[in-house]
Amino acid sequence: MTKRGKRTNLVHGGTKRSQWGELSEAIFLTQGFAYDSAEQAEARFLKSGPDEYIYARYGNPTVAMFEQRIALYEGAEDAFATASGMAAVNGALTSVLRAGDHVVAARALFGSCLYILEDILPRFGVQVDFVDGTDLEAWRAAVKPGTKAVFFESMANPTLQLVDIAGVAEIAHAAGALVVVDHAFSTPVFSDAIAQGADVVVYSATKHIDGQGRALGGVILGTRDFIRGTVEPYMKHTGGSMSPFTAWIMLKGLETMDLRVRAQAASAGAIATAIEGHPQVVRVSYPGLPSFGQYDLARRQLGAGGTMVAFELKGGKDAAFAFCNALEIILISNNLGDAKSIATHPATTTHQRLTPEQRAGLGISDGLIRLSVGIEDTDDLVADVVQALDRL
Ligand SMILES: *Cc1c(COP(=O)(O)O)cnc(C)c1O
Fold first, then answer.
1. What is the pLDDT of residues 154-206, one digit of tens each?
2. For the chain, which has fewer Cβ within 10 Å, the N-terminal or C-terminal residue?
């Protein structure tokens, strides 16, 4: 058997067993490694091979298992695991950019991603232009010869608008720019980002990869040259590597990720369908609904609707708060991709720091609710959302 299915790889991919033959992956909670001889230490510092470790900031067997497993699943040549999703975004960009470079980014970004692009990179002489990520003409106008990289979230938080990966990649590649995609909302399960033209894919493993709200983590995926030649030297010297304990949590998360995320997406679709047209709901934004503005793109790019549902209530902030407070199963929080269903009011939490004008520009109204759909019984989740709406 040479070619294995994706779910088989999520369970077995990258596994390395110790001499004890442990069934569950071992956690190598060690920062260092002992050498058989001084000569071996010297040789390893000169050049270390695939299963030769020096120091956990550089690499660790449990972390390597996680990296190989997610790379196999994603269809990437290699991966580097990071301490958080933000360490991954920062590492993917900062490892490759230098003073004088030009970057084009989508405007609708996770707050910390925006901070890196808007505040940190310009401090080091990188010029960043922002565009409406959904508008291919805007990308075409902003990308120029000498643009070093483009960056976007393939599915924007919290409106779930999509960026056309293949369309942007064609424009970026014509100018020789690297395409870096934050794919957290799209999930690894509904990803074909590399086949669609992404050069580098970044995930917050905190979200669907752990999927159980336990640990922060991240991963950068790309070609072996990029990961080992560009990302690894930067990450191992700046300290953003993943801890072995986190890697073990993420490995166990990967085993069930495909099952979890598909179940979450099925429930998300059921909720979106059930509440579309409810008298308290102005509009439902779910990539799997035919009414979604980019439905065709969603089918082509994701093949599904994803695990997130956004909808706008008629009564603004008061209705949004009353809705959240009326929920009986779904929790009020700001994580996403979790086994537990979560409701978020972006205007007063995740996007509170933006000005009302900035929020309006991103489509974040006071009545907007973002649901991250978990793995509870679909009927229970639909009933919970509907009863909370009916009480408004
Ligand atoms: C959560 C998230 C991040 C940051 O990940 P952390 O693990 O919290 O550091 C980056 N981008 C997107 C789109 C996210 O949802």
1. 999 999 999 999 999 999 999 999 999 999 999 999 988 999 999 999 999 99
2. N
Q: Express each pLDDT in 122-156 by its tens digit.
A: 999 999 999 999 999 999 999 999 999 999 999 99
Residue 1 forms part of a structural domain: no
Q: How many domains does the chain have?
A: 2
Among the three residues 253, 282, 313, which one is the final residue of a domain in this structure?
253
Q: Are 120 and 265 part of one and the same domain?
A: no
At 3 the pLDDT is 81
Cα(210) to centroid(ligand 1), Å = 13
Query: In angstroms, what is the span from residue 351 Cα to ligand 1's centroid?
Result: 14
Q: Which domain holds residue 225?
A: 6-253
Regarding whether 353 and 282 lie in a shared domain, the answer is: yes
Q: Crossing angle for the helix pair 244-275 and 61-74, nearest 10 degrees?
A: 30
The type of residue at 392 is L
Partners of 281 in the β-ladder = 313
Task: Identify the residue whose C-alpha is closest to ligand 1 atom 2.
Answer: 204
Ligand 1 centroid vs 112 CA: distance in angstroms? 8
Q: Is 240 domain-assigned? A: yes
Torsion angle defined by CA atoms of residues 187, 283, 344 and 325, in that order, rounded to the nearest 10 degrees? -140
Q: Hey, what amino acid is at 239?
A: G
Q: Per the structure block, which two tokens stand in for 46?
A: 């000169």
H-state helical runs in the chain: 6-12, 38-46, 61-74, 85-94, 111-115, 121-123, 136-142, 165-174, 224, 232-238, 244-275, 295-301, 316-326, 356-361, 378-390
Task: Let me know whether 332 and 237 are in one domain.
Answer: no
Last residue of a domain, one of 253, 277, 310: 253
- Quote the pTM value: 0.97
Is residue 230 situated within a structural domain?
yes
